[in-house]
Amino acid sequence: MKTTPTATAVPTEIADAARPDADRPAVVRALSAEVTRLTGAASDTAERQAVRLAELTAHYGASPFTPLEQMRRRFDLDRAGFGELLDLFDRIPQLGTAVEQGPAGKYWSNTIRPLNAAGALEAAVRREPAFPYSVGLYPGPTCMFRCHFCVRVTGAKYDAESVVPGNEILTSVIDEVPSENPTAMYLSGGLEPLTNPGIGALVSHAARRGFALTVYTNAFALTEQTLRRQPGLWDLGAVRTSLYGLNNDEYQATTGKRGAFERVRKNLRDFLRMRAERAAPVRLGLNHIILPGRANRLIDLVDFIAELNESSPHRPLDFVTVREDYSGRDDGRLSEGERTELREGLARFVDYAAERTPGMQTDLGYALESLRRGVDAQLLRIRPETMRPTAHPQVAVQIDLLGDVYLYREAGFPGLAGATRYVAGRVTPDRSLHSVVHDFVTSGRSIDPQPGDEFFLDGFDQSVTARLNQLERDVADGWDQHRGLIRAV
């Protein structure tokens, strides 16, 4: 049983314990005093524990998915000694806060913490059925782009006849999702959501239940005509536009479509203007993936956003997220030279964005935030041998127009080789999403990962898989009480 932390003022140095630039001697001194206060240990014993606590905190602040047994061996402690250290860590809650604010803090804040609080990770570890924490609706029947990094099968699409019954299935899913979490659902997919002529009605239906849906879109179809034809789109919580370049040549090289950049830029400007005219609360942001050869373009990205904002100076763009390519494919990896260039440019990017686009939220995600803060963290890479045969439907699932429930976000493409093995079941008028997930989990069904299956996992799926593997390893090693180091209260 965990000890309740003592409520008292703790030196601020402890809160800095996971920062790469922290004053380590000051952190150790502050921790030594706290250990003595909590345990009555002599100064030499307290200092030894303080050094270990500081190292433990710094390590998990940068490498959150390390199994506890690995750390025990690193400290060369017996089980009783390491258990005492973990108990002490729990009694100083500021250390947990320090870990969550470390270089890899986005893993904690964006993924681990909310899933801990919801109990979704625990359900997955225990192999217990639970309604998914996150539900992706994939309503797009086709896509106008052919991006070189996309796994879509060229020409693959859903039959036009599947749209109406498919929307009925998605509507039934919207009715089924518990409404306690207004952001439990999102619109995305292997194909472009805005190609669905009924997407506005889906959004409005969800909004009436209290959901603020986010749509992930390439914005090519986000025209003024589409917005007037489908006014339900104004009921969205957010529009996240994937940005594939900053000029015509880059866009055409990435998407294969001539004139796409100019059209997307115009659509974004028109959206900002119309949003301001309607005083609509929907948020607008950009998702920008840094592709090879473009690591030096972040300053240009800020200038692009500032120019967009001229269409609506009093209601500008709300956010931008910047990511590396999580696909793991060779053509998406940055060279060492580009990573060095990127590391040096991230701080300038954040400062310049604050100057030219004040108030805009800038999110660098998992690895780039670590890189900006001085830790050259490589992107997490799950391989077939580290994939979980039971996946994590308690955490997230995705449903396409056929009602097929996919276990990974990048598997939901029609005609994609091997993807159907990651379909947990099909939602029908007579079978609910709850039943599909319950039956998959309780059946004990497992999937033997094959080479290449790792490409079905996006960055979210990879971090969830890494966390679940860590938790299961900790339980297997006898560290159930402390699994994952930081757990939900």
Would you write up a description of this structure?
Strands 7-6-5-4-3-2-1-8-9-10 form a 10-stranded mixed beta sheet. Residues 1-7 have low confidence and may be disordered. The protein is of the alpha/beta class. The chain has 18 helices and 10 strands.
Shape: globular
Total helical elements: 18
Terminal CA distance reads 12 Å
Instruction: Specify the structural class.
Output: alpha/beta
Rg over CA atoms, rounded to whole Å, is 24 Å
Q: Which strand-content bin applies to the residues?
A: 5-15%
How would a textbook summarize the main sheet? 10 strands, mixed
The side-by-side strand order for the widest beta sheet comes to 7-6-5-4-3-2-1-8-9-10
Query: Element order, helices and strands?
Result: HHHHHHHHEHEHEHEHHEHEHEHEEEHH
Percent helix, as a range, is 40-55%
Number of separate strands = 10
Overall pLDDT score: 90
Low-pLDDT regions? 1-7
Highlighted features:
489 residues, 10 strands, alpha/beta, disordered N terminus
Summary, kept brief:
By secondary structure, the chain is α/β, with parallel strands linked by helices. It contains 18 helices and 10 strands.
Give the SSE layout.
Elements: H1 12-15, H2 24-39, H3 43-62, H4 68-75, H5 79-91, H6 93-100, H7 105-118, H8 120-125, E1 134-137, H9 163-176, E2 185-187, H10 199-208, E3 214-217, H11 224-229, E4 238-243, H12 248-255, H13 260-278, E5 283-290, H14 298-309, E6 319-324, H15 336-356, E7 361-363, H16 365-372, E8 396-399, E9 404-406, E10 423-426, H17 433-442, H18 459-476
Parallel strand pairs: 1-2, 1-8, 2-3, 3-4, 4-5, 5-6, 6-7
Antiparallel strand pairs: 8-9, 9-10
Helix pairs in contact: 2-3, 3-6, 7-16, 9-10, 14-15
